[in-house]
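User: Some background: our group keeps a shared notebook of sequences we're curious about, and every so often someone picks one and asks for a predicted structure to add to the entry. Today it's my turn. The entry only has the sequence so far, pasted here. Could you supply the structure so I can complete it?
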Amino acid sequence: IEAKNFVPVYYLHGEETYFIDKIVEAVDQKGVVLNPGEEAFNRTLLYGPETSASQLVNACRSFPVMAQHRLVILKEAHRMPKNELEKLTNYFKQPVPSTVLVLAFKDRKAGLPKAAVTAIGKYGANLHAKKMYDRDVTQWVELLLKDSGVETEPGIATILVTNLGLNLNLIENELQKMLVFLKATKQEKLTKAFVFEMINVDKEFNVFELIGALSNRKIYQSHMIID
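Assistant: Of course. Here's the predicted structure to add to the notebook entry:
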């Protein structure tokens, strides 16, 4: 998408909606598919519950007006009636090259019929955003930290996942706040103590200190942390 090598159809589905939202945002950014000023005649935003197959196909088959592409986004595609979704298969077999269609499904059990998915496979992109578990999220946070360019103490990713859970949006937002604060205060390293303070976790009484106390057989300290 950043290289502007677009496909006619982006089929986004699965439980991890964070990645679906990120791709929709990337495609919909000004200057990506459409340049500033081209949106008025070339961008169509539709919602599954109130859109028929014919409305969607008509929007896709319209040609760009003084632009290279048309952008059509269908949000809440999982709420579009199944019989309407089935009618889209013929369009997927021969999509309009100048149209960029983004279908955002956000339900584990919802998706396009098999024939439609097969058709998209020839011309478009099919992203199944699978549910992420603790280990996956921790690795993802480590990548975020690496991309931030800030020096970090080991174990920061585990601390964030343990205390914030598996909500990727929440983790990203909290991490962005920390990085902004670090820059504002001219600090060069993201430390455990700083992270504990920012997410309001006690520096002495938390699961990591408990693990340390148990490992060193410090019975009294272990009970204090548990209490």
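Suggested note for the entry: The two ends are 51 Å apart (CA to CA). The CA atoms of residues 47 and 97 lie 22 Å apart.
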